[in-house]
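Summary of Year 1 activities. Much of the first year was spent building the evaluation harness for sequence design. The harness presents a backbone, in tokenized form, and records the residue chosen at every position. We chose the following record to illustrate the format because it has been used consistently in internal testing since the harness was completed.
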């Protein structure tokens, strides 16, 4: 093969490799978006703006809690997209001065409205997203007990470690999902 032929072949190989990298890169993002979808955008944006919460955090909680299944019911009786228990829902309805049926938690807008409100209350109360997420999962009372324990919270304000492995896993999973949502969609919005 002549020198010119070798150069043409080398250029063709480089172009082909570049095209393959581009295709795999675009396909990889598309596949990732299948696993981390954005749904209920109007409600997420409306209530996120209303309560000053990032939409990526809301999507991450929904993804982690129910995988966007509005009919989801957990083993402890939490319901809907954002997995709110009827007891918590009753407390939130009093705070908001509204009257809904527990069945309304399966309604996407109601679940997002109340889930975002609850999450914003927890962030305001605890002043730390990780601690608020732990409270969303394990309960406010339990997290307050942990904050009173110097071996768990040396400063009494944030959790240095989370004693329940399932809650620690939950907080890490939501945090990871939030970062994925931010990286996948931030440039599009």
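For this record, the design step produced the sequence shown next.
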């Amino acid at each position: 093969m002549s020198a010119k032929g070798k150069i043409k072949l080398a250029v063709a190989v480089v172009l082909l490799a570049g095209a393959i990298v581009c295709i795999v890169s675009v396909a990889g993002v598309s596949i990732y978006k299948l696993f981390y979808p954005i749904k209920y955008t109007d409600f997420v944006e409306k209530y996120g703006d209303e309560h000053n919460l990032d939409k990526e955090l809301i999507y991450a909680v929904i993804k982690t809690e129910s995988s966007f299944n509005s009919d989801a019911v957990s083993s402890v009786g939490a319901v809907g997209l954002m997995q709110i228990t009827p007891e918590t829902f009753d407390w939130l309805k009093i705070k908001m001065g509204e009257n809904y049926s527990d069945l309304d938690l399966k309604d996407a807008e109601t679940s997002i409205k109340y889930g975002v409100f609850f999450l914003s209350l927890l962030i305001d109360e605890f002043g730390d997203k990780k601690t608020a997420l732990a409270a969303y999962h394990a309960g406010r009372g339990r997290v307050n007990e942990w904050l009173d324990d110097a071996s768990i919270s040396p400063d009494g304000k944030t959790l240095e470690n989370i004693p329940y492995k399932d809650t620690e896993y939950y907080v890490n999973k939501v945090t990871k999902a939030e970062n994925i949502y931010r990286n996948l969609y931030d440039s599009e919005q």
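The CA atoms of residues 67 and 81 lie 8 Å apart. Quantitative recovery figures across the full test set are reported in Table 2.
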